Every structure is written in structure tokens, then in C-alpha cells.
User: Which sequence fits this backbone?
């Protein structure tokens, strides 16, 4: 069986952990070459080793970049194109949730700026250089390859719901990712470049579990989750794979929610 991403190449940011790591594994399993980008190079290296050992038929290259830095994102995209000859999938997934991110009164400006620079500006740089690369993708009819590609930007359920456990900068940054992605999807629709936001619900990954560092904090959220559990990173990776593949060829500009029903909830079962 040919893989769902055979002959494709992907760049995944935040590939060293959580959703990015699970997506790297799934994308490789489906035949894609991958540039695994993370500011934590040690984790990116570990992840690429894990991928290469399991799927020796694809290339999995680690790369250190801070997505908030334009020149580092450009360098990552340039390397992917140099190594793989094309960039079909850009997964702008890296993000942070700072422990000092709070409400309007208590959040320091430095925390706001840091969060915006990574979660929002980082996605902009990723989109910018992916669009430039995807325009240049060579066509190969025999392999089903064309110009254009799929860009997936990780937002969050908090982009569409309010929470009385505030993380103001994080929430604002993710809302902006949704708005930016919709607009870019419209601008580039006729170029064969699809852009979609992925909206995860609360997940069992280091990002959230480090933030919810007491049982009380976890229970405060769990009571609101229709399925009674946090999501798993691989459940998001499966959604990202769908958005990356040709199976989602008529989907662009969407807020793709993978939240266990959370954003449809009023009263949940107990
Ligand atoms: P994670 O912490 O497990 O992984 C995030 C990765 O991003 C880490 O490897 C980290 O080193 C990397 N990273 C952080 N800053 C970076 C930077 N400046 N440049 C490059 N890499 C950087 O988190 P995760 O849960 O897998 O989160 C992935 C995405 O999903 C994030 O955008 C996050 O906001 C979003 N999200 C997560 C949840 C959740 O509950 N975990 C919910 C909604 C949205």
C-alpha cells in the first residue's frame, strides 16, 4: 500500500515533543520526508532518531530553530527544500504556554511579548516561507505532485472559548492564529496552497501537564471535558495527517477542532 504522504516532504515545528513528535512519526509512517524543527535541538535529534529507526526508507532530519526568529525559520525552510527538493506540508505547531501568563491585571508585558512572538509571529514566519517554497514546487504528474501544498497552524480550543482560568496572552495569540490562517487561506486558495488551523482540546502533553501541576488544577478542567479525559497527542497527529494529505483536498480556511466535544458542551455527563 502506498503511504498517504508518499513522495511528499514536510517541515514540522515543535517536533521534539507532544503533537509535533507524534506527527513526525505518523507522517514518516505514511512516507513523507521530514525536517524536525525545534528550539530544543536535543529533543529534535532524539525524535528524528526514533523516526529514522522505525522508518529507514524516509529522511528525518533534525534542525534547531527558534520559530520567533525570521532568519531561523527561513533557514529551516531552505534546508527542507535543499534536502527534499520540495516542501508539500508545513506544520506550524510549536507553541508555549507560560506559567506566568495570567489575567489582564497580572500578566507582565514581557510574558505577553514572548508568547506572541512564538505562538503568533512564529506562525506568520512559517507561513511566509512555506508559501514562497510551495509556489516553486515542481510538478510530477506520475507521482501526483504539484505546486502548492498544505499549511497547518496549531491554534487551540481557547481561541474559540473563554476560560475563567486565564492565560491572556496565550488565548489572544491562538485567536489571532485562527484569524490569520483564514485570511491566508483566502489569499492563496487559487495557488493550490491550503491553510487550516488545528484546534486541540486540552491534551496530556508536557505543555499542559507542566502547567496543571497539581491534581486540583487538573480536576478543575476535567469536570468540563465531555469524554472525561484529556486528549492524547497522537489524536491530534491523526487530524494533522488528514489535513496534510490529499484526503482533505477541498478543505481550506477551517478551524479544525479536535477537542473531544469540549467546544459543544453546556452540561457534561458525570
Ligand atoms: P509540547 O510542549 O509537548 O511541545 C511543544 C514543542 O515546541 C517543544 O518541543 C518545544 O521545545 C517547542 N518549542 C517551544 N518554543 C519554540 C520555539 N520558539 N521555536 C521552536 N520550537 C519551540 O506541547 P504540545 O502540547 O505538543 O503543543 C503543541 C502545540 O499545540 C502548541 O502550539 C500548543 O499551544 C498547542 N496546543 C496544545 C494543547 C495542550 O493541551 N497540550 C491544547 C491546545 C493547543
Assistant:
Amino acid at each position: 500500500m502506498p503511504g498517504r504522504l508518499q513522495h511528499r516532504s514536510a517541515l514540522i515545528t515543535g517536533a521534539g515533543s507532544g503533537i509535533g513528535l507524534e506527527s513526525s512519526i505518523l507522517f514518516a509512517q505514511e512516507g513523507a520526508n521530514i525536517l524536525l524543527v525545534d528550539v530544543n535541538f536535543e529533543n529534535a535529534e532524539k525524535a528524528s532518531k526514533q523516526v529514522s529507526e522505525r522508518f529507514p526508507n524516509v529522511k528525518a532530519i533534525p534542525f534547531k530553530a527558534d520559530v520567533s526568529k525570521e532568519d531561523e525559520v527561513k533557514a529551516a525552510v531552505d534546508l527542507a527544500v535543499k534536502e527534499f527538493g520540495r516542501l508539500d506540508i508545513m506544520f506550524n505547531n510549536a507553541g508555549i504556554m507560560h506559567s506566568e501568563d495570567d489575567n489582564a491585571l497580572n500578566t507582565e508585558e514581557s510574558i505577553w511579548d514572548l508568547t506572541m512572538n512564538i505562538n503568533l509571529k512564529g506562525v506568520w514566519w512559517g507561513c511566509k516561507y512555506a508559501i514562497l517554497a510551495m509556489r516553486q514546487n515542481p510538478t510530477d504528474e506520475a507521482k501526483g505532485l504539484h505546486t502548492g501544498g498544505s499549511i497547518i497552524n496549531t491554534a487551540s480550543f481557547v481561541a474559540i472559548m473563554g476560560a475563567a482560568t486565564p492565560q491572556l496572552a496565550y488565548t489572544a495569540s491562538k485567536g489571532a492564529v485562527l484569524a490569520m490562517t483564514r485570511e491566508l487561506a483566502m489569499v492563496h486558495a487559487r495557488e493550490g496552497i491550503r491553510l487550516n488551523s488545528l484546534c486541540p482540546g486540552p491534551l496530556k502533553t508536557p505543555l499542559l501537564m507542566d502547567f496543571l501541576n497539581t491534581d486540583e488544577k487538573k480536576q478543575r478542567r476535567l469536570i468540563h471535558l465531555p469524554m472525561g479525559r484529556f486528549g492524547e497527542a497522537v489524536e491530534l497527529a491523526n487530524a494533522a495527517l488528514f489535513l496534510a494529505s490529499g484526503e482533505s483536498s477541498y478543505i481550506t480556511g477551517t478551524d479544525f477542532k479536535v477537542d473531544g466535544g469540549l467546544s459543544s458542551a453546556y452540561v457534561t455527563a458525570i
Summary: The CA atoms of residues 36 and 62 lie 5 Å apart.
